[in-house]
Amino acid sequence: MATIHWHCHDCFHRMPQGSTAGGIAVVIDVLRASTTIVTALANGAVGIRPTFTVAQARAAAAAIGSGTLLGGERGGVQIDSFDLGNSPREYSRQRVANRSIVITTTNGTAALNACRDARTVLIGALVNCSAVAKFAHALAVSSGIEGIHLVCAGTDGIATEEDLLAAGAILAVGAGLSADSRLDRSGQDALNRYRTTIENQTCSNEQSLTAALAASIGGINLSSLGMQDDIAFAALIDSLPVVPIWDQAAGWLLAAGLPLV
Fold it and tell me: CATH fold of 5-28+125-236, please?
């Protein structure tokens, strides 16, 4: 089996062009786009179409037809006339089951767009970290792909603690799946950051992660908007074993079936 190289890009804005070409990209935006996308698919959404501007989102929803939900935010706030914002708690089974969703967000969908040259693009978060790590590794092995790229969305071009913690949580599982795994320096830093956060604590992993997320740039921004409940939701590690995969040809994020590991 070929060596699997795990790369961590702490903010997609600083990722050199072509970095993910031919590899597997895992886009991470814990607060909140990736958490919301995983939640929507776990709750029965048919598919999610990411767009990169508000105008594109409205046009896509109109083209898809009645019954399509519009979701997204700018500056953390629900966009005017949209059905949903970007809180994962809004995407309940009652609200999204058997519905198609068009979504646009400030950072997450832009990070997705930056990975268009990857062979496969997945969505990762704390809520699905083990599932996405196992899926990415199994796909790399079965397809002969040597590079798995964890691409953090960050906030407005700044690397954020919450995304790096999720990258570390994914690596805590993924790097242990084969003896020949290799981590780049940023990946090792993310793994160490995650381990430091959850180890030697007197509280649960979820409580430790919630506290760390609350102190992050994204967490502070959400708290200022009165959306602190989203922080605890996003810290529920491995609560949703669903892996979104981007069908670029069709333009949809869909729930992938987990390959056997």
Answer: putative 2-phosphosulfolactate phosphatase (3.90.1560)
